[in-house]
Amino acid sequence: MKGKPAGNTFVEVELEPGKNYFWCACGHSKTQPFCDGTHQEVNYSLVDAMTQGKYKPVRVKSEKAEKVKFCLCKQTKTPPYCDDSHENL
Ligand code: FES
Questions:
Q1: Ligand 1 nearest atom to the CA of residue 40, by list position
Q2: Ligand 1 closest atom vs CA 23
Q3: Is the CB of 6 under 6 A from ligand 1?
Q4: What is the DSSP track for 30-88?
Q5: Cβ atoms within 10 Å of 55's Cβ, excluding its own
Q6: Ligand 1: does its nearest atom lie under 6 Å from the Cβ of 73?
Q7: Which residue intervals define the domain Iron-binding zinc finger CDGSH type in the entry (predicted)?
């Protein structure tokens, strides 16, 4: 299940080596592209028992300083990274 689009493209983020990042998969976080814990409320509010607990953030930890493109449209097939799926929205 894909998340709610939080934007129409991607956002570039400069990762610090050894630091953990948690990419928001549900699209409801107010601190995009990062998780703020809102997915727990979203999961809880889902009526369909088959989908409860479906959303969870994706952890990223880089060993080196690097710039990455985090998906904002939440339709990527390579989460948390942009795969240009936003071009098909
Ligand atoms: S707030 Fe979206 S995955 Fe946590």
A1: 4
A2: 3
A3: no
A4: SBTTB--STHHHHHHH---TTTTT----EEEE-SS-EEEEEESSS--SSTTB--SGGGG
A5: 23
A6: no
A7: 8-45, 57-88
The set of residues, in sequence order, having a beta carbon less than 8 Å from that of 78 and lying 6+ positions away, is: none
CB of 68 closer than 6 angstroms to any ligand 1 atom: no
Q: Write b or e for each residue in 10-32: b if 16 or more Cβ atoms lie within 10 A of its Cβ, otherwise e.
A: beebebeeeeebbbbbbbbbeeb
Each residue's pLDDT, cut to its tens digit, for the chain (89 residues) gives 789 999 999 999 999 999 999 999 999 999 999 999 999 888 877 765 555 558 999 999 999 999 999 999 999 999 999 999 999 98
- Given the structure tokens 């994706």, which residue do they identify? 58
